[in-house]
Amino acid sequence: MMRKAELIEKVRQAGREYELWKPDDKILVAVSGGPDSLALLLVLQILSETEGFSVGCCTVNHHLRSEAEAEVDFVHRVCRERGIPFFTKDIDVLGAIKSSGSLETVARDLRYAALREVKKINGYDSIAVAHHGDDQVETLLFRLIKGSGITGLSGMQRRNGDIIRPFLSLRKKELEEFLREFPYTPCHDKTNDVPDTDRNKIRLKLIPMLQTYNSKVAEALIRTADILQEDDAYMLAEVKKFLQRNGKQEGENYLLNKEIFLQALPALQRRMIRYIIFHISKRIPSYDGVERCISFIKHGGTGKKISTAGCLLYMSYGSVIFQKGNTHFGIKSDNNVNLMSFEYTHDAKTDIIHDMFVGDTSWILHKEILVNPPEQLGKNQLLLDADQVGTIGIRYVKTGDRFSAKGIKGSKKVNRVMSDLHIPIAQRNTWPLVADENHIYWIAFLRVSRFALPDDSTTRFLLLTLKKECR
After folding, report:
1. Are 272 and 311 in contact (CB under 8 A)?
2. Residue 159: in which H helix or E strand, if any?
3. Residue 416: helix, strand or coil by DSSP?
4. Burial (Cβ within 10 Å: 0-12, 13-18, ≥19) of residue 411
5. Segment 341-373, tens digit of pLDDT
6. What distance in Å separates the CA atoms of residue 274 and residue 262, rounded to the nearest whole number?
7. Which of 37, 23, 123 lies closest to 74 in space, CA to CA?
8. Residue 320: which residues within 8 A CB-CB, separation 6 or more?
9. pLDDT at residue 36 in the model
10. How far apart are CA 287 and CA 273, in angstroms?
11. pLDDT of res. 103
């Protein structure tokens, strides 16, 4: 049995080791009225006297059970008795679930949004939640059953942005023993006693069964999660170092050299794909999605593209470009190419062959003849066979213009192609086109035609770079 002072000291040490707080922090404690969150509120209030932070309390009413109002009143009474600032927020889970998502997912998203609103309005620095070691075990087993990599199996983090979890090293029974020292009877959610959801089944059926094989299976899994968190942090650091050395980032987009990427170990390749896609689309790709991306980078030819989890991958002359979008809709309309982002300072080594003004913007197309193709192309560059083109320049779309995209038979009206690419209507008449007397070769930054592309017989390469001039 853990004594009250021992539990408080254990939480203090965890808070300092994992830097969960610092003096003068304001911590908002999420309290439902159940034993776990009530214990968290009491422990943090005690620690605030010596650690120098302050605490407030917020209860989110989901309006899903008849007991909800009474639970809010109970938490309010505890806070009033103990002099703790109290806030409450109401959320409409049933109304929101009509749009999309499962009950559990919608409730969680709305709950955290409500907590963050209270945090922001009232100047709190972090939100403390009462997930403990038993919750960590449930999470690890749930993700193992569903299929997860090292990141998923590392479980919940003690700190994840503005969310802190001071109880992850404690067992639920320890919190229940701690509460016996106080004159409060916590609320009880009876829905947790019914094995109707996956997590309830894991807690009520699977874990007791595993304990027949190892009576300390929970402690073993908590330890496993801690080990995997350290391994996961190492992998993340390696990914960041690799990308810093070998990748190129333009806004939210990434460009990677294909050959260098394929030299990395498979574990690093997978983690890199996950990291880049999440950075771009804020979505986590599935295992199959990651494997498709790796196979695409290995075997995909120039001009080919695939998408997964809201991220579009495009092969371009030995490099792969990652950007927000998908193969059905093209580049997402909320992440179209920013025509103001390609700035250029004059370089005497290049030949300025044409310029064009778009409002206050001066667009310059630079020409360079090469005997060998470049190792990689930027998103604002086009490579053509110099002996297959006429007088190259940039211009706007004209009535009757048609475009023959690479890999597609026939042609389409340019305005139709721009629509397919989700170029906003207001920008189509001033979107740069690279063309000669006979063909449009490039809808700038987005789509290449099938004409004058270099092949094995090419002896002179025309490298075109489109930039906004800095005057």
Report:
1. no
2. strand 159-160
3. helix
4. middle
5. 444 333 434 444 444 544 445 678 888 888 888
6. 15
7. 37
8. 255, 256, 258, 261, 296, 297, 300, 313, 314
9. 97
10. 10
11. 81
367, containing H or E segment = strand 361-370
H or E element at residue 440: strand 440-443
Tokens encoding 290: 């990651």
Q: Which two tokens stand for residue 360?
A: 């206050």
Residue 329 has pLDDT above 70, yes or no: no
**Count of other CB atoms within 10 angstroms of residue 291:** 16
Running DSSP on this structure, what letter comes out for residue 405?
Answer: B
* Cα-Cα-Cα-Cα dihedral sign, residues 105, 107, 110, 113: negative
CA distance 323 to 298: 18
Q: Which residues of 64-86 are buried (b: 16+ CB within 10 A; e: fewer)?
A: eeeebeebbebbbebbeeeebeb
* Dihedral Cα 251, 257, 262, 263, nearest 10 deg: -110
pLDDT at 139 over 70: yes
Please check whether residue 337 is in contact with residue 396, taking contact to mean a CB–CB distance below 8 angstroms: no
**Beta bridge mates, 249:** 254
Question: What is the CA 342 to chain-centroid distance, rounded?
Answer: 26
Q: Are 296 and 307 in contact (CB under 8 A)?
A: no
Residue 373: predicted pLDDT: 84
**What is the rounded distance in angstroms from the CA atom of residue 428 to the CA atom of residue 325?**
19
Mean pLDDT for the stretch of residues 33-54:
97
Residue position matching structure tokens 């295992």: 287
Tokens describing residue 289: 């999605």
User: What domains can you pick out in the chain, each with its CATH number?
Assistant: 4-133+154-191 (3.40.50.620), 251-324 (3.30.465.60), 350-470 (no CATH)
Look up residue 155 and give its amino acid.
G
Tokens read off for 142: 């749930």
For the ranges 110-124, 216-230, 333-347, the lowest mean pLDDT is seen at 333-347
| pLDDT tier for residue 146 given thresholds of 50, 70 and 90 | confident
Cα(439)–Cα(433) distance, integer angstroms = 10
